[in-house]
Amino acid sequence: MSERVSFTFNGIQVQCESGQSIAAAVINTGTLALRTTRFGEEPRSIFCGIGICFDCVVVVDGVANQRACLVTAQSGMKVDSRS
Amino acid sequence: MIVVIGAGPGGLAAAEAAARNGSDVALIDSAPRIGGQYWRHRTEVSGYRNYRADALFAKIKASQSITYISEASVWSIERDGKLIRVNYLQGGTESSLTAEKLIIATGAYDRSLPFPGWNQPGSMTPGAVQALYKGHGVLAGKRIVVAGTGPFLLPVATALAEAGVEIVGLYEAHSPLRWALSPVALIFNLSKFAELIYYWRLLAKHGIRPQFGRAVTSFAHGRVTISHVNSDFHVKAKQGQIVEVDAVAVGWGFLPDLTLGGIAGCRQRVASDGTTVFDVDRNQLSSQPHIWIAGEATGIGGADLSLLEGEIAGLAASGQEIPSHLRIKRYAKEIFAQALSRSYPIRDGWKSWSNEETVICRCEEVTLSNIKESVVELGAEDSRTAKLFTRAGMGLCQGRICSRNVAEIVAGLTGCTVSDEERIASSNRPIAAPISLGLLGDGKK
Asked: What is the rounded distance in angstroms from the CA atom of residue B399 to the CA atom of residue B253?
């Protein structure tokens, strides 16, 4: 569990423990918002936390609509709020 | 082979029971570790009677005939003659399992009701706060309010407090006196008093005093409004109490995850509280031959009931005898489950918490005024039509979060009640997990 993982979220370096989800890692840095909505440009974070609500979707290495609460953070990942 | 989908209490009990006579079992789950939502853990399971989880985990690991497939999401189930094919995605690749028998134990997720600000970062379900902490070791904030209704609020609030979170408030919308409506359920489930005392001690240890008849009615930029509500959930006094928090965890019981059983064509029914559940017989067999369903998907009843249903389903699917004491225990837990829905019903007053601009469908950002317009000006008479006009329930979550709420709001506006057909229709989804067209068209017959 002590192994460290490092990835970027919107260009900013994020460090976390191996096995943590992208959402957990980002929230642990004190940032809650993971994306902004299409129409209202409102910030959103995790809501259900278990992959049901799709509110935490981010772009992972160019692939859109990935649930940040489910995807395990990997070193070298490039995570963005939008493509 | 017997395939068990879901590695929570129900699925684990099913796999363990089915493997007792040496049947070949595949246990498939979307999480990296077994345990499901209730027994979610990083290193070890904590909480009330956690030794039950440890014992079951050890049996599953020791069993030679159980193959455990983790981090795999099942996206469809197909019939191939007498066989059942379970298609799943694991790490971006598609695979499938072919089974003679299938046990579905997909569990449940938090039910949410809208209020102004429920879509802001920091507002989440108790399950989300729990998953962040138990699964990833991350606290959603230093100061958290836990609110809503139902006994699940107790393990969430106490686990957070044990982790060092300041529980600014624990607010239960209903009065505990409602349990007086269910004396028989309490007599048949005296062990539940031990569980209550367990949580009560933890609450006392951390100085948390649950307050009843209160609900979170708005949240904005770290300020949460707590209102006194009456028994039908209407706000009693205009002025609520305002509390500063980092996060607010609000949950209104649970909704069964019906997706996979629905795809498999298993018949559903509407329970007395309006929740759509699967119809199963006394052996947990669904309307589809060779498909059994156990746990929350057959009705919300908690881990104790799920364990019993799973064990019965596992024994039935593997052709073993089902001891009558299991059915008797299940009956006692079913009575308790009925008492739960009687003690913590969701009342219509929640609709009055929203204002015109409150987002009802989070995915498609559909507001209450959008829904009202579809009914009043465009003439929508049911939730399906309102959904087509507004796109409510047509986003990425496929209505899992909002469809029941939208149906209730539309019914309120049109002066109708939501029909069972509508409840069942809005609970079903054609595809369980998002899959790219490339994968769909690639190499599948």
From this structure: 17
**pLDDT tens, A52-75?**
999 999 999 999 999 999 999 999
Token representation of residue B229: 């509500």
A69 → chain B, closest CA residue: B132
Q: Residue ranges of the domains in chain A? A: 4-80
Q: B363 to chain A: which residues are within 8 Å by CB? A: 53-55
What are the residue ranges of CATH 3.50.50.60 in chain B?
2-109+255-322, 112-252
Q: In what order do the strands lie in the sheet with B214-220?
A: B214-220, B223-228, B241-244
Question: What is the share, in percent, of chain B residues with pLDDT greater than 70?
Answer: 99
- Taking the CA of residue B125 and the nearest CA in chain A, the distance in Å comes to 5
Determine whether the interchain pair A48/B109 forms a contact, defined as Cβ–Cβ distance below 8 Å. Answer: yes
A28 contacts in chain B (CB < 8 Å): 138
Take residue B65 and report the two structure tokens written for it.
Answer: 């005939």
Residues 97-136 of B with CB under 8 A from A: 109-110, 112, 119-125, 127-132, 135-136
Residue B445's pLDDT band (cuts 50, 70, 90): very low
* Residue % of chain A over a pLDDT of 70: 96
Out of A21, A23, A57, the one facing B396 most closely (by C-beta) is A57
- Between chains, do A20 and B400 touch, taking CB under 8 Å as contact? no
Question: pTM of this prediction?
Answer: 0.95
Distances from the Cα of B43 to the Cα of A27, A67, B54, B136, B228, angstroms: 21, 23, 11, 10, 40
The ipTM is 0.96
**Does residue B361 contact residue B390 with C-beta atoms inside 8 Å?**
yes
Chain B, 358 to 377: residues with Cβ < 8 Å from chain A are 359, 362-363, 365
pLDDT band, residue B40 (cuts 50/70/90): very high
Q: Pairing state of beta strands B2-5 and B25-28?
A: parallel
How far apart are alpha carbons A3 and B291 in whole angstroms? 42
Instruction: Kindly report, residue by residue over B353-397, the tens digit of the pLDDT.
Output: 999 999 999 999 999 999 999 999 999 998 999 999 999 999 999
Parts of chain B belonging to CATH 1.10.10.1100: 354-425
Mutate to test the interface with A, among B42, B44, B136 (most CBs of A within 10 A): B136
CA dist., res. B196 & res. B181, Å (int):
18
The domain made up of B112-252 is a member of CATH 3.90.180.10: no
Which chain A residues are within 8 Å of B42, Cβ to Cβ?
A: 1, 19
Question: How does pLDDT run across B166-207, given as a tens digit for each residue?
Answer: 999 999 999 999 999 999 999 999 999 999 999 999 999 999
Q: Was domain B2-109+255-322 assigned CATH 3.50.50.60?
A: yes
CATH class of A4-80: alpha beta
Residue B261 has pLDDT above 90, yes or no: yes
Report how many Cβ contacts below 8 Å link chain A to chain B: 101
CA distance B364 to chain A (A): 8
Superfamily for B354-425? BFD-like [2Fe-2S]-binding domain (1.10.10.1100)
